[in-house]
Amino acid sequence: VTHGTLRLSNPGGKAVIALEDRLLLIHQGLTTVIEAHRPDVMSVERVFFAKNAVSALKLGQARGAAILSGAIHGLEIAEYSPSEVKSAVVGHGQADKDQVAKMVEILLGARDFSTSDASDGLALAVCHARMLGGRTASSTLAEARPRKGSSKKGLSLAESLGITSDMVAGKKRLTLSRD
């Protein structure tokens, strides 16, 4: 239906807004989206372990504000680990961000993500739909898969579609090929 990113700091990434105000902005931003689109479910990424304890704590607080916003509006909250999302969208849990974004683009037709967070959010939605056997994600996925008999055994969904991550001049590049 829609996708986007809540901006809580300046474009350079350095927070200039107090944490409590950013948490309030998360709640207000999600409330706006929830009231506009009336979803039944909110999918969120499970907390992962981070090297920086302060960053992990702030992420946990932001995640808590998001979950509370969903709960206040009566939404079911579904949580998925990053590897569950990658497996549901790409076909294996070790996919990189570029592969996930490319598969979201193929599955949903979404383009021009303003940030990687926007494609990550859609990946969470696809994951939830796949976990439920959701008709939209499953039927779109079935259309994207190679035809019967052309499947390559032992490859992930992304790889069987020809989506690979190559190192070119020190930069990652996605390549889509057709057999």
In short:
It is built from 7 helices and 4 strands. By secondary structure, the chain is α+β, with helices and mostly antiparallel strands.
Helix/strand layout:
Blueprint: H1 19-37, E1 41-45, H2 53-72, E2 76-80, H3 82-89, H4 97-108, H5 116-131, H6 135-144, H7 157-160, E3 163-168, E4 171-176
- N to C succession of SSEs: HEHEHHHHHEE
| Major beta-sheet overview | 2 strands, parallel
Number of strands: 4
Radius of gyration of CA atoms, rounded to a whole number: 18 Å
Low-confidence stretches: 134-155, 166-179
User: Could you tell me the strand content as a percent range?
Assistant: 5-15%
Helix content: 40-55%
General form: globular
Mean pLDDT: 77
Number of alpha- plus pi-helical segments: 7
Describe the structure.
It is a single chain. The protein is an alpha+beta fold. It is built from 7 helices and 4 strands; from the N terminus they run αβαβαααααββ. The chain has helices at 19-37, 53-72, 82-89, 97-108, 116-131, 135-144, 157-160, and strands at residues 41-45, 76-80, 163-168, 171-176. Helix 1 packs parallel to helix 2 (53-72), helix 3 (82-89) crosses helix 5 and helix 5 (116-131) packs across helix 6. The longest helix is centred in the middle third of the chain and has 20 residues, at 53-72.
